[in-house]
Amino acid sequence: MSSTHKRGDLAIGQRLALATAARRLAEAFAGTFGAETIERFLHTSYDQFAGKAVVPHYLPLLAERFARQRLHALARVEGHHDGRPIVLFLCVHNAGRSQMALGFFEQSAGDRAVGWSGGSEFAVEVNPAAMESMAELGIDISREFPKPWTDEIVRAADVVVTMGCGDACPVYPGKRYLNWELDDPAGKSVEDIRPIRDEIEHRVRRLLADLEIPASRTPGIEAQ
Fold first, then answer.
1. In this predicted structure, what is the pLDDT of residue 55?
2. In the chain, what are the domain boundaries?
3. Any idea where the Phosphotyrosine protein phosphatase I domain is (predicted)?
4. Among the options 25, 163, 169, 215, which is catalytic?
5. Could you report the per-residue pLDDT of 5-48, keeping only the tens digit for each?
6. Whole-angstrom Cα distance, residue 165 to residue 36?
C-alpha cells in the first residue's frame, strides 16, 4: 500500500469503516476505476487528515468524502466529464474565505457547475464565525470541512480562484487563474466578517456571469 499507515496500525472500527467506504466508492466508480486505484486514493486521503483529527471516529468519513472528490477530479482529467465547468477556490486554511466562496457558488450555480475548495495549510475546522455569517443569509457551510488540494483536483479545474495563499498556490500553465485580494476572516467577529462575506458574494456572482451561468437568487445582497 502506498499510504503512510498500515492496515494493522488501525483500530478495527477504522478498518471496517474504510472497507465500507471502499465498497461504496467502488460502486460509485464502477467501470471507471479499479479497486487498487480506489483503495490508494481512499487511504492516502485518510493520511491527509490523520495528523489533524480532533475526533478520530470521523476520519474514515472525511477520507471517503475527499477520496470521492479526488476520484471525480481524476475522472475529469482522464476525459470522463459531463461538460459542467469546475471552479476551485483556494486560500490558506480552507476555513473561511474559500468556504464562503464555495457556499455562494453552490447556492447560486446549483447543478449547472461544480465547485471545490482547498487550503495550503488546511485547518482543523471551518471558522465558526464564518459559518454564522453565512447562516445569516440562509447558506449552511457547517457540513464542509477544511481540506488540502491535490494534483488531480487542480488539474481538473477550469478556473482556480486564489485568496491569500501566495506562492503556495499551485500554478499550472494554461489554466485560468483569478486572484481575489480579500481580508482573512481568521480571528475576526461575525460583524467584521460581514463585509468580507458580502464582497465574496459580489465576486462569485461576477464569476458566474463571466462563465455564462445564470445565478439563482440567494438570500444575500444583490450583485452590483
1. 62
2. 1-81, 83-224
3. 85-210
4. 169
5. 554 466 788 899 999 999 999 999 999 999 999 999 999 999 99
6. 33
Q: Taking Cα atoms as reference points, which of 96, 136, 142 lies closest to residue 117?
A: 96
Query: Distance between CA 168 and CA 171 in Å, rounded?
Result: 9
Could you give the C-alpha distances from 87 to 38, 43, 60, 197, in angstroms and in order?
Answer: 24, 25, 26, 18
Catalytic-role residue among 87, 129, 165, 193: 165
DSSP string of 131-159? HHHHHTTT---TT-------HHHHHH-SE
Q: CATH assignment of 83-224, given 3.40.50.2300, 2.60.200.20, 3.30.9.10, 1.10.3720.10?
A: 3.40.50.2300
User: Which architecture characterizes domain 1-81 according to CATH?
Assistant: Orthogonal Bundle (1.10)
169 is catalytic: yes
* Residue range 85-109, pLDDT digits in tens: 999 999 999 999 999 999 999 999 9
Determine which one of 71, 91, 109, 213 is catalytic: 91
Q: What is the pLDDT of residue 13?
A: 84
Catalytic annotation on 148?
no
Whether 91 sits among the annotated catalytic residues: the reply is: yes
